[in-house]
DNA sequence: ATGGTAGCTGGGCTA
């Protein structure tokens, strides 16, 4: 099973890129973030023609997530579109069980700036996520939580750790929240297969970050221990970041037996 | 250095 995640930063703008990437990579599952469209505009028919079933949870202008699943793979009925019990108008969560694997697509809040209201929202959101995932973990041995986490797990995931120290995406409280989530029994799948630094999934549009590989690894694929046991490889496909009019994120991929 | 770019929208917010 090949599972991937891509923050597309507007599905309308990136539509043809997503189609081309799907045809090239043929993942079993592709989860998207920041589709930035209302539900009625989601191009379900285009994906059906490419052989993918789709689930989506959109909103106007911001956020929005989707899951694409190859035809033939069974999607169970337990689809969840929000963190249970957490009041939130922002569409950042989509969960479904695909072929017996619990898939959780996340667009974690950015947080804007340490100490800001949006930072507190990010921490509150992540605390609610923690509670919910703990319950999900009790129901599902096979789980993959993936998406834009907006947290660089360690300094090895940051091009300039000194400049980013304590800043948003790298602060202690954010990293501790991620560690706590991992302690439920998940591993950072990319790091199981890659130990070198300098490998990133996001590069700021500003100041030519991609050309200089000044990025952060903030798009993650967390595998439950049962899935880690069958993980074969994980990598970041930096090619689409170099395409014309790219998303600021690259797709991340994990392969399982 | 508090900019720089991109997307949505139609001025300002978010990232």
What does this structure look like?
The protein has 257 residues and is α+β, with helices and mostly antiparallel strands. It is 26% helix and 26% strand. The chain has helices at 11-25, 44-49, 117-139, 161-164, 172-182, 189-193, 225-228, and strands at 2-7, 29-33, 52-57, 65-70, 93-98, 101-107, 143-148, 186-188, 202-203, 215-216, 219-224, 231-236, 252-256. β1, α1 and β2 (29-33) form a beta-alpha-beta unit. The longest helix has 23 residues, at 117-139. It is globular, with a radius of gyration of 17 Å. It starts with a strand and ends with a strand. The model has no long low-confidence stretch (mean pLDDT 98). It binds one DNA strand of 15 nucleotides through residues 9-10, 12-13, 34, 36, 60-62, 110, 112, 118, 150, 204-208, 245, 247-248.
Q: How is the topology of this model organized?
A:
Blueprint: E1 2-7, H1 11-25, E2 29-33, H2 44-49, E3 52-57, E4 65-70, E5 93-98, E6 101-107, H3 117-139, E7 143-148, H4 161-164, H5 172-182, E8 186-188, H6 189-193, E9 202-203, E10 215-216, E11 219-224, H7 225-228, E12 231-236, E13 252-256
Parallel strand pairs: 1-2, 6-7
Antiparallel strand pairs: 1-13, 2-4, 3-4, 5-6, 7-11, 8-11, 9-10, 12-13
The structure holds one DNA strand of 15 nucleotides.
């Amino acid at each position: 099973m090949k599972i991937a995640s891509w923050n597309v930063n507007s599905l309308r703008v990136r539509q043809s890129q997503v189609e081309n990437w799907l045809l090239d990579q043929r993942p079993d599952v592709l989860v998207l973030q920041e589709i930035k469209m209302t539900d009625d505009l989601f191009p379900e028919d285009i994906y059906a023609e490419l052989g993918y079933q789709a689930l989506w949870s959109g909103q106007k202008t911001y956020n929005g997530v989707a899951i694409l699943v190859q035809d033939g793979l069974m999607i169970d009925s337990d689809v969840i579109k929000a963190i249970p019990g957490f009041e939130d108008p922002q569409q950042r969560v989509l969960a479904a069980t695909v072929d017996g694997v619990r898939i959780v697509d996340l667009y974690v809040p950015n947080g804007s700036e340490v100490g800001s209201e949006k930072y507190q929202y990010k921490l509150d959101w992540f605390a609610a996520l923690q509670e919910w995932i703990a319950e999900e973990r009790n129901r599902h041995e096979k789980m993959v939580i993936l998406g834009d986490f907006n947290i660089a797990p360690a300094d090895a995931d940051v091009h300039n750790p000194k400049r980013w120290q304590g800043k948003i995406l790298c602060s202690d409280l954010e990293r501790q929240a991620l560690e706590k989530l991992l302690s439920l029994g998940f591993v950072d799948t990319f790091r199981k297969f890659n130990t070198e630094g300098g490998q990133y999934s996001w590069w700021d549009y500003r100041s030519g970050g991609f050309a200089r590989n000044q990025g952060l690894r903030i798009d993650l694929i967390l595998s439950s221990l049962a899935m880690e046991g069958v993980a074969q490889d994980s990598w970041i496909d930096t090619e689409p970041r170099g395409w014309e009019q790219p998303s600021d994120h690259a797709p991340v991929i994990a392969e399982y037996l």
